[in-house]
Amino acid sequence: MSAAKKRKKALKKRKNSKRKTEEIKKSSKNVFEKEEIEPIDIVKSESTGDTGIEEPEIPQKIPDFRISLWILLAISLILLLTTFDPKVFLGGDNAYYLSLGRSILHGTYANEVSPNPAPETGVPPLYPFILAILNLIFGWSFLPAKILSLIFYMLTLWIWFKFFKRIGFTNVLVYGIILMASLNPRLAEYSHWEITEALFMFISSATFLYYFIAKDKNRPKDWFILGFLSVLCYFTRASGASVSIAIFITMLINRKWKPLLWFSIANVLFLAPWLLRNMLLGGEAVGGFYIDFFLKNPVTQERLTVKELLAKFLKNSHKYIFVNFPRMILALSGFGMGIQKYFFVGFGGSLAIFGAIRTLKKYLHIALYIVIYLIIHSLFFEAAAQVRYLVVLFPFVVGFFLIGILEFFKLVKPSDKPFRYRVSYIFLSFMLLMTLTGYIIGQFKTFPELRAYVKGNRFAGIKPSYVGFIQANEWIRDHCEPEAVVLSRKPRLTWYFSHHKSLSYPYAGPDEIWEFIYENNIRYMVVDRFAKSTIYYLIPTISKHVNYLDVLYKSKVEPPTYVVRVRAQPKKIVITDTLIINGKRKK
User: Fold this and answer.
1) How many C-alpha atoms does 159 have within 13 Å on its Cβ side?
2) Beta bridge partners of 580
3) Of 191, 206, 343, 432, which is most buried, counting CB atoms within 10 Å of its CB?
4) Rounded-to-integer distance, Cα 392 and Cα 205, Å
């Protein structure tokens, strides 16, 4: 081989070596850019001036795996479909939202359940507007709204996936949280309810995810969009105002004046018409609806004293923290009694708070949101202190808990990153096991009900007392004059099933209730068998004024529900038979 050819071959070899070196550098750069190093371990307090980039650790791999996001969501959908409940939610809020939606179709925004509807200034309009569209297309059925809730819940899982990847969780943690949310019967229950939970979970989670996008791009239009999303949170549920408040305070503390300006402009621009309307119609920006919830006794309607208000706040807070949080996270209905609930909250809550404090600079807006949201709901009336109002906090509480584990063991073993992730996997596995147990237990009930419903039993899973209630209202729908007003313990459901205006009886004596009946021109009563208040208030009224009433219908199930008509004049008592007493006939 000639010297020229040797030199040419050596030059080519050096070029190939140089190209391979560049490829290796480029590959390493891409790995870093894809955030293979978790932000939890990289980003430290900005107040110290530390760049936060850690020294390379010992060459150990964190246990991890990858599957397609779409496969994960498909698995989640299958799990959720097996717990899908197609029967109508019998709480009544769904019917109230629908009545507001139908009023939108009629050119107003008022409670159509009532015979004298006043303009609605309390309930925000987004979900009723969605129900109005569904009602226009599909009629009175709530099944399309249930399917829509399932779609919103699936979108929420997708948002949570993006959110947890954004904050630097490994695939194992992210997949575990998504599966836990799919298996958790406490959360999955709201994936098919025709109320605001699924929609609010989606919009609030999307808002907090977009906060990071706006922060990275730092463009006026992104802060404006963030403001619009936070307004949508309020328009879905009034307590969603906590989202705007939390982000506003965070920007104020961090002195982000330009972002705060654009965020505030969006809030004012989109909120002002709604608040101005409420002021003009009701004299209050948020309506007296919430004054009743916060400051009045729901039974007596009397204003609470400061002592009573504080007692209600403490009672609700205790129930949320020590009963509902454990039930939501572990998904076991029997959990929360005895000393284990205090251990769970003390241990898990401490780690969650520790995680929040350690990352307060990055996630201050989320921590403030949780606190403000809980304060608002703890001031609501006591019957509202349910798991239902906590489900929207699920991803953030679980996220802070897992961050707390990672941050705690970072202090204990600062150089052993794989170890602290293995510990977090152990805790997540325990929660996932509890959730799976709750899912399996729930399957023994929900799946047979779903199968019976598909076979044509529309009352599958409904208690007999409610079945009778539905049958009585449907009888009114088919046999009574459309303009008649109906007295009912659940007027919203009566309106939905009977298509008649309806009112609830007051908690008062027989004479006061009877006066209420005549003042409101009530023509029919639904005498249910599921409410204790019917026994305590309505039955004594019926007994005292029985001569003014006619029983028109008795439901086909036991215990029976009755439809009673109110007469304008008392019945004449006519004796049509005789009794034999001591061998003698007497009238």
Assistant:
1) 25
2) 585
3) 191
4) 8
Token pair listed for 427: 């805790």
- Packed helices 171-183 and 417-454: angle between N→C axes, nearest 10 degrees: 30
306: Cβ contacts below 8 Å, ≥ 6 apart: none
| 570 beta partners | none
**Rounded to an integer, what distance in angstroms lies between the CA atom of residue 204 and that of residue 504?**
34
The separation between CA 39 and the C-alpha centre of its own chain, rounded to angstroms, equals: 29
Q: With contact defined as beta carbons under 8 Å apart, do 388 and 190 qualify?
A: yes
Task: Answer yes or no: are the C-beta atoms of 244 and 231 closer than 8 Å.
Answer: yes
Sign of the C-alpha dihedral computed for residues 148, 150, 152 and 154 taken in this order: negative
97-142 pLDDT tens trace: 999 999 999 998 998 999 988 888 888 999 999 999 999 999 888 9
Q: Does residue 325 contact residue 382 with C-beta atoms inside 8 Å?
A: no
Q: Which residues of 272-291 are buried (b: 16+ CB within 10 A; e: fewer)?
A: eebeeebeeebeeebbebbe
pTM of the model: 0.81
Give the sign of the dihedral formed by CA 503, CA 508, CA 514, CA 518: negative
What's the 3-state SS for 418-432? Answer: HHHHHHHHHHHHHHH
Listed residue (254, 262, 64, 309) closest to 170, CA to CA: 64
**DSSP label of 303:** B
Residues in the chain: 587
Tell me what the mean pLDDT of segment 434-445 comes to.
84
Backbone angles phi, psi at 524, to 5 degrees: -135, 155
Q: Distance from first CA to last CA of the chain, Å, rounded?
A: 139
If residue 201 lies in a helix (H) or strand (E), which one and from where to where? helix 197-217
Mapping DSSP to helix (H, G, I), strand (E, B) and coil, where does residue 552 land?
strand
